[in-house]
Amino acid sequence: MDRFFTAFSHRVAGWAGQPIAFILAGAVVIIWVLTGPLFGYSDTWQLVINTGTTIVTFLMVFLIQNAQNRDGSAIQAKLDELIRAIENARNDFIGIEHLTEAELERIKRVLERECGQDADHHKAIERLLERL
Question: What residues does each domain of the chain span?
Answer without folding.
Answer: 2-93, 99-132
